[in-house]
Amino acid sequence: MQRPTDIAGMMRALEGFMTAEGKARGLSHPVRASDVFISPYAKCGTTWMQQIVHGLRTGGDMSFDEITAVTPWIEMAHDLGLPLDPQPGDFRVFKSHLSWNEIPKGGRYIVVLRDPVDAMVSLFRFFEGWFFETGSVALDRFADYFLGERDGRDYWTHLASWWAMRERDDVLLLSYEAMKHDLRASVAQVAAFLEITDDATIAVAEAQAKFDFMKAHETQFDDHLTRMARDAACGLPPGSVASKVSTGKAGAGKPLVSDAVQAAFAATWTETIEAQFGFEDYATLRKALEGEPG
């Protein structure tokens, strides 16, 4: 058994990742008003936000094998053999990557937005050595795949669906870049959304969401439960290892891709997000999100 060495092979492997039955079971799970769904697009800060919210609801409990075991991925939990209940803390937390269009309704929702090029580069690095052989797929070719995904699960549909819900009381949007710039303020914003006011709890959640802490506990954030459960179904060899804890420097993706790829991302943004909401680029949208003058 070998890893794919091209995009076509990667896409065939991905077909085995999630089953329709497993997704349907997760989406039919009864929702409580207190439930929290953390649903960024892939590689936009999901694991980071899971750790923040779990720390806030438990006062810093770290007695879990891997974060997905205590904040289960709702559309994948059945396929991973993980229960959705019970969970520690005063409320349930679910990971997701679903758009507003698909996610179960009736709970509370936290979504982290991220520059699309940075998200694409992070996804490339995450897949390399897992869904395709290291060094076998060029970054620009992966960018073409990322841009070509227009099946309702793509970055652009996801962003548009959540942006349209940003004024709802049960929806909190943050940017990955703001979390990098001022983690304390971001954790405080999440705590306020969840109506958590205890200063000690907020301080612990912030401390345990810092890079050095999460890096020191890297195996608790590395998706090993997902890989053990789904590698065979995807036709992938076992033993892949990848960290989800990285410095994730904002804006680091653009220097790594060609001018043609940057232009293609800009054109796609214009066709989708700017056409719907009037923001000429991600930076302009982020300023609007964070209340900064354009």
UniProtKB/TrEMBL annotation:
InterPro entries: P-loop_NTPase, Sulfotransferase_dom
Domain Sulfotransferase: residue ranges: 34-226
Keyword annotations from UniProtKB, A to Z: Transferase
Highest taxon above the source species: Bacteria
Annotated Pfam families: Sulfotransfer_1
Stretch forming the signal peptide: none
Family affiliation: Belongs to the sulfotransferase 1 family.
Protein name listed in UniProt: Sulfotransferase domain-containing protein
Protein's organism: Roseovarius rhodophyticola
